[in-house]
Fold each of these.
Amino acid sequence: MTLKNEHKVFKSMQEVKDANKASGLYFFDEGNMKFFKSVIETELISSRWFITSELGPNFGALREFSVREVVDQSGRIKTVDRGFKSSEEAQRSILNLLGC
């Protein structure tokens, strides 16, 4: 089974992390995650999207939630939307992407 453009369907966040690292990418790098106080909030949604939250140096004291997309078999990650105040708001954005 593949994503659009014949991309691999990932079954877990661990598979995405492994592919990202094996491709020489740094999205899930421990230093990056620590710097932004980034948390992966969900497992994969429809083998493609997931939600993170960040508390980086420019975000103040509030955690912001972002919708991320796995765009290809390398595990490359694209930010689809961000600035949500809750995980629930970000999940609604994904439902909109799914046409629900």
Note: Confidence is low (pLDDT under 50) at residues 1-5.
Amino acid sequence: MNRYKRVAPLLEPHEVGGLVNRMRKRAIVLGSLPRVDFSPDPDDNPVIAATLAGRASYLVSSDKGDLLALGRVRGVQIGTARAFVALVG
């Protein structure tokens, strides 16, 4: 977690282990990812591929340049965290 400078001030070091363990319990381990070419930024395509392989219904992003501009890919809504929170309440 210390690699994530914006998150680090929000968590005490002893909280990180618990968070990682909770994430592991809920994680879906994906096999191979489909090849996709939806975004003008090739670095975004693996994110989209993982979203599709994981059968997500929503992809949260702050990437205003490319991902958010796509809006929706194969039925997956792409939006901001604020929009997601408004959607799920």
Note: Residues 2 and 8 are 6 Å apart (CA to CA).
